[in-house]
Design a protein that fits this description.
The structure holds 2 protein chains of 2 kinds.
Chain A: E1 2-8, H1 12-23, E2 28-32, H2 37-40, E3 50-51, E4 54-55, H3 59-62, H4 71-75, H5 77-93, E5 98-100, E6 106-109, E7 115-118, E8 120-122, E9 160-166, H6 174-183, E10 187-193, H7 206-213, H8 216-229, E11 235-239, H9 249-258, E12 262-265, H10 272-287, E13 291-294, E14 298-304, E15 307-313, E16 320-329, E17 339-341, E18 347-349, E19 401-403, H11 413-416, H12 419-434
Chain B: E1 3-12, H1 16-27, E2 32-35, E3 51-52, H2 63-79, E4 84-85, E5 89-93, H3 99-112, E6 117-120, H4 121-127, E7 137-141, E8 144-146, H5 148-161, E9 165-167, E10 172-178, E11 181-189, E12 194-205, H6 211-218, E13 224-234, E14 242-245, E15 254-258, E16 261-265, E17 269-271, H7 281-294, E18 303-314, E19 336-340, H8 341-345, E20 350-355, H9 361-376, H10 401-409, E21 415-417, E22 422-423, H11 424-432, H12 438-445, H13 457-469, H14 474-486, H15 494-510, H16 521-524
The chains are: A alpha/beta, B alpha+beta.
Chain lengths: 442, 536
C-alpha cells in the first residue's frame, strides 16, 4: 500500500483531517482500529464548555486564557474558528445542519435532564427549551452566567415541555429527564408514545429504533401516538433516535407530522447523531477517493532517519505495510486507544512509540472522585507549534509525523468539553501544514 | 429515652454469624432482635473471596478448623443449595513447591475427613485448561463457591418469618448496665437520627472483627486481631473450579470463580483497625503475579477492582503467640470461640462469638446458642443443620441460570445490566419491595458488578427509580458512581483504564455530572456511607 498521507484513527480528529487533506488534493489513506468518539460522545460539537470547573459562555474568547501548551494555543484561535466554520459547511452539505455560533455556548438537553454547555448543535437538538413559570426545583446544576440573552436562533419564552419516550426503549427515562429539567427550571412532564408494530418488538437498541424511524411509512404510523403523548406541550423532548442513515429529514418530517418542535436529547453511547456524522464523513471520503482500512489497528512504523516511511497495521491474514510521505496520528488518548496505560504507571503511544510522560505509579492516573478530574484524561503526546511530537528536550522526534485530537497532551477533552473543537482546530492546522492551499468545502 | 423494643436477646452484628445466631434462636422459639450498623453483609461477610471451604486449606496446620469446615461444607450444601455453586477445587503443586508438603497435605486431609483425589498433571490440565503447563500434580477436594449475600438473605428471611426482627442502620452506641447485667442496648437509629434503647435479657456479640468495640462498651476486654486480606477481582472466571496452591498458605495462593468473575486471594496482614481496608497497588500486583504462577493468563487479564476484608481473628488472653503488628496473621487459628462473659468477666448476660469463618457460621451459631439456651433454661435442641432455608427449593446455584432465564423469556431487550444479566423485571420488583437506592439494588441484584462497572446500568436504573418516585435521583446516581469508584483506583491500567475514562466521558462528559455542587444527601440524612463490598 502507498499514500501521500496516512491518517491513523477515525474519530472526530482523524475523519476531519482526512477529509480536509483530501479536499486539498492530497492522496490520503485512513487506517483505523474501529469507531471513535463520534459514537461515544454527546453528538454535538464542544469547543470549550468549562474552564477551571466554571461554565464558559464565550469559547473563542476563553481560548486566550488556556495554558500555552494547550492544543488550541498551538493550533491557534484562527484554526479553531476556521475548523468550526468548515465543519458547519461540511455538515450542512451532508444534510446534517448544525445551529450555533462559535462566539457563544448554548445548552444541550441530555437524557438526565441536565443541560450541558456546547458550541454547535445538530438542528434536531438545537431548539431552545421554553422557561417554566416557577423557580428551579433544586437538584440539577444550573450555573449559567446570567446573561439573559437568548442562546441561539430559536425563540425563548414560557411554555410546557413534554419529555416523551418510545415505549420499550430502555435507554431513555422520561421521568428522570423531566425531573432533571424541572430542576433546571423547565416545566417538563414525562410521557410515553407507543411504537407501531415492527420487526423488533421484543428487543431493540437505539440503532434499530433509529433505522426504523428512517422509514417514511414507520414515521407516519408513529406520529399520531407521539402527537397524543405531546398533547398540550410547546416543545417535545425525545431520545436522539430520529433516523441514522442519512441527514436530518426524518426529524424534520416527524416534527411536521406531530406539529410540535422536537428536540433530541443526548443519550449514553452509542450516539445516533454521532453515527449520522460518521456516515456522512464516510460518504465524503468515498467521494474523494480516500482509501480506508477499518477494523485493523496500526501497530508500528518504519523509519528512515528522522522520517517515518511506512505504517504497519494488522490485516485479515498478515501485517499490512502502507508507505507514506506524511503520517497523521489521530488515535486518541488513553480512552481512544492511542495511549496504553501500563500497570507500572508508564504510558506508551501505541503506533510509533512516541514519548509520553508517565506517572510515578498507577495510583497517580486517577483522582479521588470519579466525577472529578483524572490526570490520565489529560495525558498525551507533547507537540511543537507544527503539531510534531517532541522529545523531552523539546525537539521534534520525526519531521513528518503530526498528532491531532485527543492524542495531544495539554488538554482533557471530557473535563473541558473541548473534544470536537480540538479535533477540528488541529485537523485544520494539519491541513494548512500539509496542503498549504486548501480548497473550500464543496 | 423510651425503649424502642423489648426482647429476650439482642444480637449485635449483621454478618453471617449474627444472622445465623438469630435464625438458630428463632428455630428454638427465642424472641430476638438483630442490630447492624450498616446493612446486612457489609463487613467481612461481604468482603471475602466466596470460597465454600472443604477445609483442605487448613489440613496441615489447623485440623480443628479443617474438620469444622468439611462438616459445615456438607451441611450448607444440604440446607442452602441455592447459595452454593458445586465447582470443586484443586490444590496444585508447582515447580519449586515442597513435595514433602504434598504428602503432609494428603495425610492432613485424611485425618480431617476431607476426601482427596490425586490427579496427574495431564488430568489436572484437562479439568482446568488454563493451568500452568509446568504444574506437577494436583489434588481434587470438595471446595465450592458460596454467595454470602444469598445465604444472609435466606437466613434472615427465615428468622424474620419466625418472628425475629432485623434492624439495619442501627449501630450499637452503648449499653445500659444494672450491676453485673446489661438491661438494654442503646442503638442509634440512623434514619430517624436519634438514639433508642432495646430492653433485653441477653446480649450476643456477633460483631466479628469489631467484637472488641462492643466489648469496650460493655466493659469486658476482648482482644481481637484485625487481619486484613486483600482480594483482586478479575473480569472473567478463568477457572472452572477453585484453584489453590499446594503449599503453606501464603499471599496469592487461591483463585475462586464466582458469578462472572474470578477472585484472587489473599494477603493476611495485621492492621490496627478492622476498618482499615485500604488496598495498595503493590498488594494487587502481588496477588496477580502469585496467582499467575498457577494460571499464567491472569497476568495479562483485565482487573475489575480490588477490595479488602478484616478477618475476625481472636487472640485468647492466655496465649501470646500470634502475629505482631504488621505481621502475618496466618499463624492465628481459624477456629472459633464462644466467650461467656459471666464466668470470664463477671458480666452476667452477654456472650460473644469470635474467630471462625463464613463456612462455619452455622456451627458457630449452634455452639453459641447451645450455651445461651443452657443459661436461659431453653431446652429446644438446635435444628439449623436439618431445616432447609427458604429458597433451597430453587436447587443448586448454577452459573448459567440467569442467562438461561433470559434466553427462555427472550428478555434481551429487558436487560438493564448486560454484564450481570439483570432484567427490568428484577429491578422493578426490587423497587416495589421498597428499595430506593442504587447501592441497595447493587447488593440485591449484582447490578453494576461487571466489566463496564455500571457505565450503562446505573443511569437506566436511576431512570426506573425516577419512574417510581418522580424525583431526579441525580444525587443518588452520583453517590453510587463514587462508591463504585472507591474499589477501582488500585486496579486501573490497560483496558480498564480505557473503561474508566469512557465512563467518565459518559457521566461527566455527556451528562455533565460533576458531583461537587450537589449536597451529600447521605450525610445530610445522617445515613452511613455504604461500605463497598466484595464479590465483584
Amino acid at each position: 500500500m502507498r499514500a501521500d498521507v496516512v491518517v491513523v484513527g477515525a474519530g472526530p480528529a482523524g475523519l476531519a483531517t482526512a477529509v480536509r487533506l483530501a479536499e486539498a488534493g492530497r492522496q490520503v489513506r485512513v487506517i483505523a482500529r474501529g469507531n471513535g468518539f463520534t459514537h461515544w460522545g454527546a453528538g454535538a460539537v464542544d469547543a470549550l464548555g468549562r474552564l477551571g470547573g466554571e461554565r464558559v459562555e464565550r469559547p473563542l474568547e476563553a481560548v486566550g486564557r488556556l495554558p500555552e501548551d494547550h492544543p488550541y494555543r498551538l493550533a491557534g484561535e484562527a484554526a479553531l474558528r476556521d475548523g468550526l466554520d468548515w465543519f458547519a459547511r461540511f455538515a450542512a452539505t451532508a444534510g446534517l445542519a448544525h445551529a450555533g455560533d462559535p462566539e457563544r455556548n448554548r445548552d444541550q438537553v441530555t437524557a438526565l435532564g441536565v443541560l450541558r454547555p456546547t458550541c454547535l448543535l445538530p438542528e434536531p437538538a438545537a431548539q431552545v427549551l421554553p422557561e417554566g413559570s416557577g423557580e428551579p426545583q433544586g437538584g440539577a446544576p444550573v450555573d449559567r452566567e446570567g446573561s439573559g440573552e437568548p442562546q441561539g436562533g430559536a425563540p425563548v419564552g414560557r411554555g410546557r415541555v413534554a419529555v416523551v419516550n418510545f415505549e420499550g426503549f430502555r435507554d431513555f427515562s422520561p421521568a428522570l429527564c423531566a425531573a432533571g429539567l424541572r430542576g433546571a427550571g423547565v416545566d417538563a412532564v414525562p410521557a410515553s408514545a407507543p411504537l407501531p408494530p415492527w420487526d423488533h418488538a421484543r428487543y431493540f437498541s437505539a440503532v434499530e429504533l433509529a433505522r426504523a424511524i428512517d422509514d417514511d411509512d414507520f414515521r407516519r404510523r408513529l406520529a399520531p401516538g407521539l402527537a397524543r403523548a405531546a398533547a398540550g406541550a410547546d416543545v417535545v423532548v425525545v431520545p436522539a433516535v430520529l433516523g441514522v442513515r442519512g441527514g436530518h429529514e426524518p426529524w424534520a418530517d416527524l416534527q411536521r407530522l406531530v406539529g410540535t418542535p422536537l428536540v433530541e436529547a443526548a443519550t449514553a453511547p452509542p450516539s445516533i447523531p454521532g453515527l449520522r456524522l460518521f456516515a456522512a464523513y464516510r460518504r465524503r471520503l468515498d467521494a474523494l477517493g480516500v482509501g480506508w482500512q477499518f477494523g485493523f489497528p496500526a501497530v508500528g512504523v518504519e523509519r528512515d532517519g528522522d522520517r517515518v516511511t511506512a505504517v504497519r497495521s494488522e490485516g485479515a491474514s498478515r501485517e499490512v505495510v502502507t508507505h507514506c510521505q506524511e503520517l497523521v496520528l489521530a488515535t486518541g488518548g488513553v480512552a481512544g486507544h492511542g495511549i496504553e496505560a501500563n500497570r507500572d504507571g508508564t504510558l506508551a503511544e501505541v503506533v510509533a512509540g512516541l514519548p509520553v510522560e508517565g506517572f510515578p505509579d498507577r495510583t497517580a492516573f486517577l483522582g479521588e472522585r470519579f466525577l472529578g478530574e483524572h490526570p490520565l484524561g489529560a495525558a498525551g503526546v507533547r507537540v511543537d507549534a507544527e503539531l510534531r511530537p517532541m522529545n523531552a528536550s523539546g525537539s521534534p522526534v520525526h519531521a513528518n509525523v503530526r498528532c491531532v485530537g485527543g492524542l495531544l497532551a495539554g488538554h482533557d477533552p471530557t473535563v473541558e468539553g473541548s473534544r470536537e473543537g480540538v479535533a477540528l482546530a488541529t485537523a485544520t492546522r494539519t491541513a494548512e501544514l500539509l496542503a498549504p492551499t486548501p480548497t473550500p468545502a464543496t | 429515652m423510651t425503649p424502642l423494643l423489648e426482647t429476650d436477646v439482642v444480637v449485635a452484628g449483621g454478618g453471617v454469624t449474627g444472622v445465623a445466631v438469630l435464625r438458630d434462636l428463632a428455630l428454638r422459639g427465642v424472641n430476638a432482635v438483630l442490630v447492624e450498623r450498616f446493612d446486612l453483609g457489609t463487613g467481612t461477610s461481604g468482603r471475602w473471596h466466596g470460597l465454600l471451604h472443604s477445609g483442605a486449606r487448613y489440613a496441615v496446620r489447623d485440623q480443628e478448623s479443617a474438620r469444622e469446615c468439611i462438616e459445615e461444607n456438607t451441611v450448607l450444601r444440604r440446607i442452602a443449595p441455592h447459595t452454593v455453586e458445586d465447582i470443586g477445587g484443586l490444590f496444585v503443586l508447582l515447580p519449586g513447591d515442597d513435595e514433602a508438603y504434598a504428602g503432609k497435605f494428603v495425610e492432613g486431609c485424611q485425618a480431617s475427613g476431607i476426601p482427596t483425589e490425586e490427579l496427574s498433571a495431564a488430568e489436572a490440565r484437562r479439568r482446568e485448561p488454563l493451568l500452568a503447563p509446568d504444574v506437577k500434580l494436583a489434588f481434587a477436594v470438595p471446595d465450592g463457591g458460596i454467595d454470602s449475600w444469598a445465604l444472609l438473605r435466606s437466613m434472615a428471611a427465615d428468622a424474620e418469618a419466625r418472628g425475629s426482627r432485623v434492624l439495619v442502620r442501627h449501630p450499637v452506641v452503648g449499653v445500659e448496665r444494672d450491676g453485673d447485667r446489661i438491661t438494654a442496648v442503646r442503638v442509634h437509629d440512623q434514619v430517624a437520627g436519634e438514639d433508642r434503647l432495646i430492653g433485653c435479657q441477653w446480649v450476643v456479640n456477633a460483631t466479628g472483627a469489631w467484637a472488641g468495640e462492643i466489648g469496650r462498651m460493655a466493659g469486658v476486654p476482648i482482644r481481637m486481631i484485625a487481619g486484613k486480606g486483600v482480594m483482586v477481582v478479575m473480569a472473567s472466571r478463568y477457572v472452572r473450579g477453585v484453584v489453590n496452591a499446594c503449599r503453606k498458605p501464603a499471599d496469592g495462593d487461591i483463585i475462586v470463580p464466582q458469578h462472572e468473575v474470578a477472585i484472587l486471594g489473599t494477603t493476611s496482614v495485621q492492621v490496627d483497625s478492622p476498618d482499615d481496608i485500604a488496598v495498595a497497588p503493590a498488594d494487587v500486583d502481588r496477588m496477580i503475579d502469585m496467582c499467575a504462577q498457577m494460571v499464567p493468563s491472569l497476568a495479562s487479564g483485565r482487573v475489575l477492582r480490588a477490595f479488602a476484608g478484616s478477618r475476625p481473628l481472636y487472640q485468647p488472653e492466655s496465649e501470646d503467640g500470634g502475629a505482631s503488628d504488621g505481621g502475618d496473621t496466618r499463624e492465628v487459628s481459624r477456629t472459633f470461640t464462644v466467650l461467656d462473659h459471666a464466668s470470664r468477666d463477671g458480666l452476667g448476660n452477654m456472650l460473644s462469638i469470635v474467630g471462625g469463618k463464613l463456612t462455619t457460621c452455622r456451627q458457630m451459631a449452634e455452639a453459641l446458642v447451645d450455651r445461651l439456651a443452657e443459661r436461659m433454661g431453653v431446652t429446644e435442641p438446635c435444628r439449623t443443620a436439618t431445616e432447609v432455608l427458604p429458597g433451597a427449593d430453587h436447587g443448586p446455584h448454577r452459573l448459567a441460570a440467569p442467562l438461561a432465564g433470559v434466553e427462555r423469556d427472550g428478555a434481551y431487550g429487558e436487560l438493564i445490566c448486560e454484564c450481570e444479566l439483570v432484567t427490568r423485571g428484577q429491578v422493578r420488583a426490587a423497587i416495589a419491595d421498597g428499595l430506593t437506592e442504587l447501592e441497595d439494588l447493587r447488593r440485591k441484584l449484582r447490578l453494576g458488578y461487571g466489566p463496564c462497572q455500571a457505565a450503562f446500568c446505573a443511569w437506566r436504573a436511576a431512570g426506573m427509580l425516577s419512574e417510581g418516585s418522580g424525583g431526579d435521583h441525580l444525587g443518588g446516581l452520583e453517590r453510587f458512581l463514587e462508591e463504585r469508584w472507591r474499589g477501582q483506583r488500585a486496579t486501573i491500567w490497560g483496558d480498564q483504564a480505557r473503561q474508566a475514562l469512557l465512563n467518565h466521558a459518559i457521566y461527566r462528559g455527556i451528562f455533565d455530572l460533576r458531583g461537587a455542587g450537589r449536597p451529600d444527601e447521605a450525610a445530610a440524612a445522617g445515613l452511613p456511607r455504604a461500605e463497598p463490598v466484595g464479590g465483584g
